[in-house]
From TrEMBL:
Compartments where found: Cytoplasm
Alphabetical GO biological process terms: protein folding
UniProt keyword annotations, A-Z: Cytoplasm, Phosphoprotein
Cellular component annotations (GO), alphabetically ordered: cytoplasm
Stretches assigned to the CS domain: 159-245
Biased composition (Low complexity): 119-146
Name of this chain's protein: Nuclear migration protein nudC
Molecular function per GO: unfolded protein binding
Compositionally biased intervals (Polar residues): 320-329
C-alpha cells in the first residue's frame, strides 16, 4: 500500500518545515545512501544510464499528477495569471478599506479622548468651584455677627447678600460691607482686577469670585470708615448688572431705574437728544417734525418757481404728503 509510510512522511515534513523540506530529505537520502545519481557505463552493476534517473523522476511525478487531474481540473498558466490579477486587485481594495477603517477608528478614538478630556475639565472646574464655594462659606461662618450687612446701607438699583450690599449707576457699582471692629487698611486686603474681586479681612476670605462684567481696575477704589468697607468699581462699559459676583443672588434687571441726567452727556449728544424730544413732542401735537419743516420750506420755494404746475396758486399742503422725509404728491 502506497499510504503505509504516510505517518513517516508527515513526521519528516513537520520536522523539516513542509513539502520542500520533505523533498530535500528524500533526494538527500538518494544521494547519500543510493546510486540514484550515479551515471553508469555499459556493463556497470550500479547506477543508471545518463538521463534515466531524471526520466524516472518525471514519469513518477506525471503518474500522480494525472491522478490529481482526475479529481481536480487542470489550470493553465494564463488562467492563473488572470486569477492572480483579480486576487491582487481585491487584496489591494481590502487593504485600502482596512486602512480607511483604521483611520476612521483612530479619528473616533481621538474625538472620544477629546470629549473625555473636555468632560474631565468641566468636572474638575465644577469641583474647583464647589470647593471654593465651600471654603468661602466656611470662612464666612467664622466671621462675627458684626460683619452682617447694615440694613440702612444703600442698595439703589442693586441688592444685598449675606456678605455685602451693593448699588449701581450706569457707570459704576458700589459694594459695602460691615467688617469687624479694629479692621483697617493694614489687616484688610482688597484685590480688584478687570474680571475678579477678592476681599480678605484678617486673612479670612469674605469675597472671592468673578465679576458680572469687566471693570476698569485702575479707576476702581476702596475705603474703610467706622467698620464699613466701601468698594467702588468703575464699569468697563455702561450697562446694567444683575449681580456683583457671578453665582450670587441676582436682581431683576427690568426693574432697574436707568435714567441719566441730560447734562451728563456732551454738547453734541445733548443737541441730538433735544432734537429727538422736540420731534416727538411735535408728532404728539400732530405737527410736522423739524425735518418735515425743512422739507416744507423747500416745497414752498418750489411752489411758485418757473415751470411749477402750481405757480400762481395759493400754497396748499394738502396736495402732497410728507412721510419719513419723502415728498409724495
Amino acid at each position: 500500500m502506497v499510504d503505509r509510510f504516510d505517518e513517516h512522511f508527515f513526521l519528516i515534513a513537520k520536522e523539516t518545515g513542509g513539502i520542500e523540506g520533505l523533498l530535500n530529505s528524500l533526494f538527500s537520502f538518494l544521494l547519500r545512501r543510493t546510486d540514484y545519481y550515479y551515471e553508469c557505463d555499459p556493463g556497470d552493476k550500479m547506477g543508471f544510464p545518463p538521463g534515466v534517473a531524471l526520466n524516472m523522476l518525471g514519469n513518477t511525478f506525471k503518474k500522480y499528477q494525472d491522478e490529481h487531474y482526475k479529481v481536480h481540473k487542470k489550470k493553465s498558466a494564463q488562467e492563473y495569471k488572470e486569477k492572480l490579477e483579480i486576487y491582487q486587485k481585491k487584496q489591494k481594495e481590502l487593504q485600502e478599506k482596512k486602512k480607511e477603517q483604521e483611520e476612521l477608528k483612530k479619528e473616533i478614538q481621538i474625538q472620544q479622548q477629546q470629549q473625555k478630556q473636555v468632560q474631565q475639565n468641566e468636572n474638575q472646574s465644577q469641583q474647583d468651584v464647589q470647593i471654593k464655594q465651600e471654603q468661602n462659606q466656611q470662612n464666612n461662618e467664622n466671621l462675627t455677627q458684626k460683619q452682617k450687612i447694615d440694613p440702612y446701607i444703600n442698595t439703589y438699583n442693586g441688592g444685598e447678600t449675606e456678605k455685602y450690599s451693593w448699588s449701581q449707576s450706569s457707570n459704576d457699582v458700589v459694594v459695602t460691607m460691615k467688617v469687624p471692629e479694629g479692621s483697617n487698611k493694614k489687616n484688610l486686603k482688597v484685590i480688584i482686577t478687570a474680571n475678579t474681586l477678592t476681599v480678605k479681612v484678617k486673612d479670612n476670605v469674605v469675597v472671592d469670585g468673578k465679576l458680572y462684567d469687566k471693570v476698569k481696575s485702575d479707576e476702581s477704589i476702596w475705603s474703610i470708615e467706622e467698620n464699613l468697607l466701601t468698594i467702588t468699581l468703575e464699569k468697563g462699559q455702561e450697562n446694567i448688572w444683575k449681580t456683583v459676583i457671578l453665582g450670587d443672588k441676582e436682581i431683576d434687571a427690568t426693574k432697574v431705574e436707568n435714567t441719566k441726567p441730560l447734562d451728563d452727556f456732551d454738547s453734541e449728544t445733548q443737541g441730538a437728544i433735544r432734537k429727538i424730544m422736540y420731534d416727538q413732542q411735535r408728532k404728539q401735537q400732530g405737527l410736522p417734525t423739524s425735518e418735515e419743516e425743512q422739507q416744507l420750506e423747500i416745497v414752498k420755494k418750489a411752489w411758485n418757481a418757473e415751470g411749477s404746475p402750481f405757480k400762481g396758486q395759493p400754497f396748499d399742503p394738502s396736495k402732497f404728503n410728507l412721510s419719513n422725509g419723502q415728498i409724495q404728491f
